[in-house]
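Methods: example folding runs. The two proteins below were folded one after another, and each record is reproduced exactly as written to the output file, sequence line first and structure-token line second.
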Amino acid sequence: MYKIKLSKDAKPYALSLPRRVPIPLLGKVKEELQRMVTLGVIAPIDEPTEWCAGIVVVLKPNGTIRICVDLTHLNDYVCRERLILPAVDETLAKLSGATLFSKLDATAGFWQVPLHPESVPLTTFITPFGRYCFHRLPFGISSAPEHFQKRLSQMLTGLEGTVCHADDILVFGTSREQHDHRLSKVLERLQQEGLTLNKDKCEFAVDRVKFLGHIVSAQGLEPDPSKIKAITDMPTPTDIAGVRRYLGMVNYVGKFSPRIAELSQPIRELLKADSDWAWGSMQQRAFEELRRELSSPTILAQYSPNRATKVAADASSFGLGGVLSQKQLSGEWRPVAFISRSMTEAECRYAQIEKEALALTWACERFQSYLIGMDFLIQTDHKPLISLLGSRALDDLPPRILRFRLRLLRFTYKIEHVPGKNLITADALSRAPIRAPLLPEEKQLEKDVGAYVNQVVEHLPASEGRLAQIRTAQDTDSVCNRLKNLVQNGWPDQRKALTPELQLYWQYRQDLLLADGLLMKGDRLVIPVSMQVEMLNKVHEGHQGITKCIARAQQSIWWPGLSKQIKQKVGNCAICAKEAHNFPEPLMTTQLPDRPWQRVGADLFQWNSAMYLVVVDYFSRYIEVANLTSTTSAFVMEKLKAIFSRHGVAKVLVTDGGPQFVSAEFADFARVRLPTCD
């Protein structure tokens, strides 16, 4: 029994007069109402009700009518169960290996579900013959399909070889004996549950069956011939609206042919915002070729979780394409599904290697219902992706590639390189992608990748002004300009095809990318020649030695030979050479104090030609820094007094024995102020 639940803000809606019904149909309407009363689906109602809907009469091809109750206003307030109906592809994937099928159809399925007495008045509707209300679940309620699907699924729980979708039940088996056994169990269960079947619509023990818009057989999946005929019989489009209607129907068979996207490309060009309507010879030729292609669509193999599986994907400059294939018992690889889509404006600006990684990530995520939980093979014609999406350490990946790799971590795969000539199908799909709105998960992928790359740029140790300066310098540098073009459109197959200055970047090509107009190597800015001397001086500032200077550079900047130039600069620096012989004392462990400000350390340091005093609490690691206009003991003591006045006098003060801390003046200060001074 089903009870309709309404939201608290529900506002009743009631018609006081019936909608007009064509006079020739009045007799049939009266007969249909009486039939529904006899079946116990509806009953006349005389008492007042807050809700009352109108009806719409639909004439069927066989001359009978269907009475549709317009429950639109009621549906605005119905609380949905939000049961997610299984995806068609997921349902069809369960039919792997089946050779015999029986399709069962529930007679007026919704009408077999009793309606709760409290919900009956809500379904009141008015006709020329009076008011009626439903005692069975009406077809017009928005929550009806999901409730019936839930009820049907519960009925079939525990029964093998069955799938249900809406009011259709499919029973299947790999042999006659298995099929008949499963069918017997299903019929027995339905009888126990009191579900009535429509024998005229049921099919028993057939080797081909129409289910969910497909023809299912032991050979695989085919598109419904009636849908193919509807497409091939369509007239030539005469306007943009006609093109959209035509392509919308063509998209239905997109997964059955790797050539649909390619053949329909001239027609899709008419949908571009800057395109004028002009149905020319190219469009007409494409229209006729599509008709021929659709007359014999590919039979897709049935998916099986026990067969070797591979995903091939490719990216052109504006589209993505992918193919899911499985190895059959004969040893032949057959396609299970084809996919393609156009790239967004943001994706079109990716480096070519990033587009290839996007294609593989997108294909795996689109096919995830087939792939998660199994080992499979990824094929790509872009050799650098073998390491980038395979064995390379995560902390050594460019930002976008890292994001794609992280999204692939939930899959268990091996990746191999295949020459482009052997990846024809995926390549063709990517070069003629289907233009359709992105799915929610595809939007999320683009959003995640964009957000991560933006975060990398925002956290570079450079101001907006500095980044703008570097961007301008890159734009005016001929090498950087050519690099940007190579990154976005792809590199040649061989290093020798590049000019000498670009050959320096060949071995790093898989790490170069564009982010917010900046040329980067991973998360480091590529510095043009005009700024390299300046950046080298910045890195060397502070005379910290080779190791620390290189580490500092690795945080934000890069160009070929940077580390070598740093070594040369430090090696030729007199100050660095002098400091290199002052070997530091080995570090010593110190016992952690019991409380804050019990033991503190003090030292002097120089930064940007200014001197500072730093005081560190050993317990909390809290730091105080004071600027020193003089480095005498007297001035240092004044700064220490100010710090101690804020935090209290330390029990122990640790210094390095510098001249400021070993003078007689400081010794007197320590005896008066400090219990211990090391």
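Second run, written to the same file directly after the first:
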Amino acid sequence: MSEERKFDDTRALAKSDVSSASSKEPLVLDSEQQENAKKTGVFGKVNFFQPWFEPGTTAKEKKLIIKLDIFILTYSCLAWFLKYLDQQNITNAYANGMKEDFNMTKNQLSWLNTYFSIGTIIGSIPASLLITKLPPNIFLPACDFIWGLFVLFLYKCTTVEQMYALRFCCGFMEASANPCIHFILGSFYRKSELGRRSAFFVISGVVSQAISGFIMNGLNSSLDGRNGLPSYKWLFIIDFVIGIPIVLWGIVALPGLPNRGCKAWYLSEWDKEKIKERIETDGRTQENTPWTWGTLKTLLTSWQPYAYTLAYSFWCLTAGSYCMQFMTLFLKYKKNYTQTQINYMPDAISCVNLITMISSGIIIDLIGGRRWPVCIFVGLLMIVGFGILRSHTENAKLRLTGYIITGVYGCFTPILSGWANIACGNDPKLRAFTLSVMVAIGTSVVTPFQQYVFPSSEAPFYKQTNGFSYALAFTVCLVAWTGIGLPLLETYMEKKKKNSKQISDEEEDKVNPIFLAADI
């Protein structure tokens, strides 16, 4: 009995020593405490515009976060801006003379999208695996530059078949942008910081979609016919030129990953250690372990790739990302809108997308990181929008309202990517694998879907293929899975993990007293 008491006293003393030692360090809230603090703030007195920094952040750590925002976040936003500028240019070119110059018929615009998507499908997983091994400031800018060259080469094309090949190459090189940048953001920011950063990252793509129309109109009035080139070919050239400073900024701005030393000219030794400490405190260690068959088995038997890929696939199958194209084709079909209106009016979708992304990121952080309420609300708005489009009405005002409402779709990208980043916890390989599989599978299922359900020959109503009926059905699936199924699954897996850890700790406690008592 005395030995047991001595053991209990020893263990209590050890806990006391640890507690007193830790009290000398700056206060760091664990993830559960942060979550509880946020939940309390939501229902108490809270400023809706939550501070950029978490409560309790020291002045020195704020300077570190500002560095990360200036270098990592700005590059991320600029790269995503460039991606969507290059992705949107094909639709703008189609609506501004390319269709007539190339005598494009039937579904050739859809095939241009399809070849791009095939490239993305093939490139996503290799890119995500390479980013865990190669320096980000070399790998990502190299991909940016090469895809910029492929965009530039589009202006030299004389046949649609040549454009098919280049669009595939563009998609293959751009495949690195989505999963790799989300992986990098998840490697440097805490869970509580990811919502807003991921939202700003994706917002840059929305801004790009809006600006692309303005660039196209500017080229129509200033460079159309210059050096014998139509304005839409100048668009490909200008997009390449815009990409050059972004490539250079990536080389300068991106640091090495935390598990490889955070090599960057602007980070001090304290900064590097603090970055590692922040992520470890968040429950996400980042060990630089080698790839083995065991690693592959762990990835394939984890629940995260399947759960979040299903969610992302449902989102892709809503075809929300094609709504700007759908609206452009509708305006062109009506024949009573000017070319300027055709270029500008779809920007309303981008504005709705922008507002939704900003507000959803803030709301998620305010309600303790819970994403399912936002998924349900946004999904219901999408159901209303696709319900209007499914009616096949030719009433321009009502139909344009339907297109614009569906603009809320975009916030699902940062929501699902941030959710997956957090759910994968302390396994960087699992995070990289999950994010890449999400993009690869999501793109692979939507590629044949948009080709056969939304062929350009059936635009803008897609009556024969029931396009908007399918979009509505998959939106319902998206709401059900992200609003109910995924939260329940996550809760179940967390409880299962907690119970397993508790059983393991109890077994360890049964063994340890024997050795400790013997030592005493």
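Comment on the second run: The radius of gyration is 25 Å.
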